[in-house]
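User: Some background: our group keeps a shared notebook of sequences we're curious about, and every so often someone picks one and asks for a predicted structure to add to the entry. Today it's my turn. The entry only has the sequence so far, pasted here. Could you supply the structure so I can complete it?
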Amino acid sequence: MKAFTARLLARLSLITTEVLVVGVLLWAALLVFFYLTRVVFVNKSATFDWWAFSCMDTLRYAYPWLTSGVLIITFFASMPFLLAAGVVVPAALLWRGYKREAWELLWAIVGGSILNQLLKIHYERLRPDTALLPQAGLSFPSGHAMIGMTLYGCVAWLLWRHGHHPAWAAALLLWTVLIGLSRIYLHVHYATDVVAGFAAGLVWLILLRFALHLWERIVGVTIQDDVEVLKEQ
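Assistant: Of course. Here's the predicted structure to add to the notebook entry:
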């Protein structure tokens, strides 16, 4: 009975302030995502999307030289870059001795990519027919926005946790937003695709973080119980 009580208390100790705050973010991201699915697929509203296109078109006509910079920005969440980052960055973390962080980042990228494809197949939204450059695949949610959020969001979290670098973390999140805006600028995604991608990426990051935290606590409690049993023997 004492062992059971100890395990129960150990599980309840997971309910910390961090978990509560992250839980609020999780529900907010889920609400945003499913609200957008209703706007797009139930209400069939394109008001927000065409307003965003209009804003970006005005910007592009006023400053045509921006397009070359936007193409550079959007590359940093493209599939070739993500494949390279998914190998090089975790390998570098392993080499520096950050095994747990390497696996966390790898799961963030791989899991985010798989989830993004599953969501695209489920919703089957076609890309805008006004795209400035040809893009294959489906549109909702944006892969650049979603996987960019999982990659740069995860790196931002790791920087904050290990070195408390708020400036770098904020810069990475701003960079993620710029990547999403680049997709709207190029008309390869609707604004609702991009916002939904950010929301879905945040949901995946939070679930992954919570799962890893839960796993570590469960494994830690199990190991501690085993040690106590060995001592009693």
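Suggested note for the entry: Confidence is low (pLDDT under 50) at residues 221-233. The chain is about 80% helix and 0% strand.
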